[in-house]
Design a protein that fits this description.
The protein is α/β, with parallel strands linked by helices and about 475 residues long. Helices cover about 45% and strands about 20% of the residues. Helix 6 crosses helix 9. The protein is elongated, with a radius of gyration of 32 Å.
């Protein structure tokens, strides 16, 4: 019976994380970046670390344990580094880490284009180990990366572009998750109009956040990120005029759309909320569309991401000067965590704990009705209160009696533990269920829980006020 209890307890411990996990992530293996030129070995090591770290930022991906150098895998194929096929490299990677055989492999190589000493390009090729196909590849310049922060940010952006190559087509009934077809867009650095300390830093960070939001929507975002002031000098014109933006787009060859914006405080106070305007420019004919939004001063990263996504989603329907349509306003409020991921595991844990409570009660009741225990207790008279604690160990009956007392004490501990666990799980489950059903935290109602636990009783009083 004790083995059964241990198995049930282990099952309960494993139950919650398994139930919370919404979907199985695909393992992604990234061999160490191969540098064609030995002078780039240090850069290859830095990029390898950034790419593996960035996998955790891509929804549905998880990094595998593969840590072999790409050059080693290529040599394992036929002894020659540059002549190895991608399919062979994937097989070698799968042999070193079986997880990779069920996921993806990203092959990364640093190349100096045309023998240039400064023009360094990172070639990223995505391979599907399950289908044996290559969804695609990208090439990105890396010689201008100047900081680890920028390198990590770009690594996430690159992998986001690769992830789009594996994304299934959206269900038309649910609305397009990505734009179609992908459009080439450039993001100009947002300009801080206020002069308070930290505003320039926020403007740069929000620019990067908007870039990532555009990538998530399916845009092909230009690697260049010039500032609006810089482009104004180059084109000898001032934003946010749409005709001026058109001249800027011509300077950025191949760009079909432009996004820029301004950041300022709503009041002459550095602690006041920040007001953000996103300008979206199209050029046939030249049109500027605007979306505004507000966010608290010194916001967290989550609120920035939420606001950027809302502004990017609404920019194609943004306000056009001279029209009567109102300007869309975005707010940095998150939809929140899906409470359903917590509610049902908690309620399941409460039910399992109740089952263990029942088992405990039955076991304790069985001991109390055991013939040996009844004889043991009777041998010391009815006036003895705690026979288990007072009776000495002597005869075989005493030994048997104390053994039964020990078992009963263990089951009382199990009963108490699962009573506490089950009560807490029930409280949490019911609370999150109510919040999930109402869609928000009730303002004019209250729910109170009062668990009552005793040696032989367990009760939960629930009071709901409307």
């Amino acid at each position: 019976m004790e083995n059964i209890v241990r198995s049930l307890f282990v099952g309960l411990v494993l139950f919650v994380p398994m139930a919370v996990k919404a979907q199985e992530a695909r393992p992604v293996g990234i061999p160490s970046v191969w540098a064609h030129d030995a002078n780039d070995d240090a850069l290859a090591i830095e990029l390898t670390s950034a790419l593996r770290l960035a996998v955790g930022n891509i929804s549905g991906w998880t990094i595998s344990n593969l840590d072999s150098p790409l050059a080693e895998l290529m040599r394992a194929c036929d002894g020659e580094v540059e002549s190895a096929s991608e399919s062979c490299i994937v097989r070698m990677a799968s042999a070193r880490d079986p997880m990779v055989a069920h996921g993806l492999v990203i092959l990364a190589a640093l190349m100096r284009e045309g023998g240039s000493a400064t023009n360094i390009t990172l070639h990223l090729t995505l391979e599907d180990a399950v289908t044996g196909q290559s969804p695609g590849s990208i090439r990105v310049p890396v010689e201008r990366i100047v900081s680890p922060v920028e390198r990590n940010r770009l690594a996430t952006e690159w992998l986001g572009r690769l992830a789009l190559l594996t994304a299934p087509a959206p269900d038309a009934r649910e609305g397009p998750a990505l734009i179609s077809p992908p459009q080439h867009i450039a993001v100009l650095g947002f300009e801080a109009l206020s002069v308070f300390e930290g505003d320039d830093t926020f403007a740069r960070e929000f620019t990067l956040t908007v870039r990532q939001a555009l990538i998530e929507r399916g845009y092909v975002v230009d690697e260049r990120m010039p500032g609006q002031g810089q482009m104004a000098i180059v084109t000898n014109c001032e934003m946010p005029d749409a005709t001026c933006a058109s001249r800027m787009a011509e300077t950025l060859d191949g760009v079909g759309f432009l996004v820029g914006g301004e950041v300022t405080h709503v009041a002459e106070d550095p602690a006041s909320d920040l007001s953000i305007t996103l300008n979206y420019y199209t050029f046939d004919p030249p049109v500027r569309r605007r979306v505004s939004g507000t966010i608290v001063s010194h916001p967290n990263q989550t609120d920035m991401v939420v606001l950027a996504r809302q502004m990017v989603e609404g920019m194609t329907n943004g306000y056009v000067e001279g029209t009567s349509a109102p300007m869309p306003v975005a707010a940095a409020t998150s939809d929140g965590f899906n409470l359903g991921y917590v509610t049902w595991p908690l309620l399941g844990l409460a039910v399992a704990s109740l089952a263990m409570e029942v088992v405990s009660w039955l076991m304790i009741d069985g001991i109390q009705n055991d013939a040996d225990y009844i004889a043991f207790r009777s041998s010391y008279g009815s006036g003895t209160g705690d026979v288990c604690g007072q009776a000495p160990t002597g005869s075989a009956l005493d030994t048997r009696g104390h053994s039964l007392c020990s078992n009963a004490s263990n089951w009382e501990s199990v009963e108490l533990a699962f009573g506490i666990i089950g009560g807490a799980a029930l409280i949490g489950g019911l609370t999150t269920l109510i919040l999930d059903l109402t869609g928000d935290e009730p303002r004019d109602s209250s729910v109170s829980f009062r668990p009552q636990l005793g040696p032989t009783t367990a009760r939960l009083d629930v009071s709901i006020a409307f």
